[in-house]
Amino acid sequence: MNDYSDKTQRATRHGVRWRVVLVTTDGRQAFGRTGDLSASGASVYLDVYLQMQTDALLHLEVPARPDVIERQIVQLPCRVVYTVHDNAMGQFRTGIQFMQLDEPARDILQRAFKAYFHRARPVVAEDA
């Protein structure tokens, strides 16, 4: 197994439809929503095809939950690990792996997981 497979099997995936903008290192933007989200990556539905190994910055909107968490945008460095066209959604389903998340990004993800998924395990550095 490769490093990506090992991480994805350990991380719990949460089915959420949160808004995203993925900005590649060459400045291209792709808009969409998450299909699922974990501490180590996400599956996102985008309006464009992105090649594997594309490095990018994922802007993830964590929606507000009254009295629990305020709306936040978190920026997550990532890499595209697969892209397939999903006929049912009419978009490209793209798997992304988070790369070297800094402490503020991990904290925001942890708070989001705790607010929305009460049994979420902590986001730790080796997950990111």
UniProtKB/TrEMBL annotation:
SUPFAM superfamilies on file: PilZ domain-like (SSF141371)
Highest taxon above the source species: Bacteria
InterPro entries: PilZ_domain
PilZ domain span: 21-112
GO molecular function: cyclic-di-GMP binding
Protein's name in the database: PilZ domain protein
Protein's organism: Amantichitinum ursilacus
